[in-house]
Write a sequence for this structure.
């Protein structure tokens, strides 16, 4: 038990509150399950009940909450597998889409379970089952019970690709005394930007714990075959103007329909590639487009678009980058609704001009850098986004300039992976001695 009486009290109050809310976690899983069936599965992992599952002692544990964080962690996991093939890796997520992405990227080459809820009993069972020798936590997953449990067991914890928006910092106000104490047990916080680093210090981390290393998303590599896929897609759909609305949320769907309707008045042959952020919105996107009177194809049903389709819904996971490459202009969602934006570097990396809405607090540093480089057009609202997409469809030279600026920025931004490995590798168990 901690010697600090204030910490003991804070931890006791936090744990009691979570145990009282335990029925809500089951309700949440049921509610999400009606929207995405995978939430009905693997409840035992949510509470760290592993039954006869054999333990995995001595692993290195990487936690990435969902698809975006798994993609950001991919360069790090791949580098660890290459440089330290002796390590057993455990990758945890919270969402089913994150889980699916882990299996798509690494199959059975890594161990995978859901991270349990932040209950002391569950965290104890989780750590007893896997006994990690190091914990590599991606971005902003600051769970106090888990951080304290790792500290108490002497497990070095790194918060990597760490980001903390001004909004998230304000959101931690109620738990700030507890989170600050939990953060001080972390070995190192590798922040994405100077602003992120300063906010982690304001949250309670000691300055010497925090290092700015850059954003691992710059180190994500474009998958092989993307250009070949884009060329084939364009040929099949009739070599016509195409834009993509990617990572959209429920509150943005009507805007996407309105923008596409407006654009098709100018370009009647225009094709919309529509990739909702969450699988439970695939059907809604299809229905929105059909109700607008358009012919709709989907990746699962028809695999390709043809020259008669007005909308092609990307109702699969893990293929977004290649569809970015097939578009002339990319709108990245989560930015018209007050979500905070999504990864702007993926379309930039494949040479597609990027448009976004104004709500970008989760990607503020990347958005600023891209806008300054001339690689991003930020619309103040849906009408402005429509105008930006129209202007870029009408001006191939401007599109090409934005695309070139984006690719240059991505290339110049690489390096966070090497700096992150330099922090992490010395803390990992040494490789076995050669016979």
């Amino acid at each position: 038990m901690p010697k600090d009486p204030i910490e003991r009290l804070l931890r006791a109050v936090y744990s009691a509150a979570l145990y009282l809310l335990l029925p809500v976690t089951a309700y949440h899983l049921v509610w999400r399950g009606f929207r995405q069936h995978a939430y009905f599965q693997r409840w035992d992992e949510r509470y760290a009940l592993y039954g006869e599952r054999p333990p995995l002692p001595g692993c290195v544990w990487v936690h990435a909450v969902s698809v975006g964080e798994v993609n950001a962690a991919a360069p790090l996991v791949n580098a660890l597998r290459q440089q330290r093939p002796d390590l057993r890796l455990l990758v945890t997520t919270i969402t089913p889409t994150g889980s699916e992405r882990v299996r798509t990227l690494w199959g059975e080459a890594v161990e995978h379970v859901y991270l349990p809820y932040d209950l002391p009993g569950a965290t104890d069972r989780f750590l007893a089952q896997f006994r990690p020798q190091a914990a590599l936590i991606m971005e902003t997953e600051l769970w106090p019970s888990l951080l304290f449990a790792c500290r108490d067991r002497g497990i070095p914890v790194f918060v990597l690709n760490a980001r903390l928006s001004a909004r998230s910092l304000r959101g931690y106000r109620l738990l700030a005394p507890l989170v600050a104490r939990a953060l001080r047990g972390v070995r190192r916080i590798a922040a994405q930007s100077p602003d992120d680093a300063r906010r982690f210090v304001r949250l309670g981390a000691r300055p010497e714990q925090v290092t700015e290393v850059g954003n691992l998303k710059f180190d994500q590599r474009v998958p092989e075959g993307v250009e070949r896929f884009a060329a084939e897609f364009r040929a099949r759909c009739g070599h016509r103007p195409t834009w993509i609305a990617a990572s959209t949320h429920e509150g943005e769907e009507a805007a996407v329909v309105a923008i596409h309707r407006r654009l098709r008045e100018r370009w009647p042959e225009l094709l919309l590639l529509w990739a909702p952020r969450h699988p439970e919105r695939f059907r809604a996107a299809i229905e929105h487009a059909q109700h607008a009177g358009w012919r709709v194809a989907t990746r699962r049903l028809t695999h390709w678009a043809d020259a008669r389709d007005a909308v092609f819904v990307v109702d699969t996971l893990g293929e977004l980058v290649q569809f970015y490459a097939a578009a002339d202009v990319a709108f990245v969602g989560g930015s018209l609704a007050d979500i905070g934006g999504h990864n702007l570097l993926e379309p930039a990396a494949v040479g597609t001009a990027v448009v976004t809405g104004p709500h970008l607090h989760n990607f503020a540093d990347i958005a600023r850098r891209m806008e300054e480089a001339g690689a991003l057009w930020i619309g103040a609202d849906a009408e402005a986004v429509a105008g930006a997409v129209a202007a870029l469809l009408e001006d191939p030279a401007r599109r090409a300039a934005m695309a070139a600026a984006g690719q240059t920025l991505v290339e110049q931004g690489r390096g966070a992976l090497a700096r992150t490995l330099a922090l992490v590798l010395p803390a990992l168990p040494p490789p076995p001695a050669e016979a």
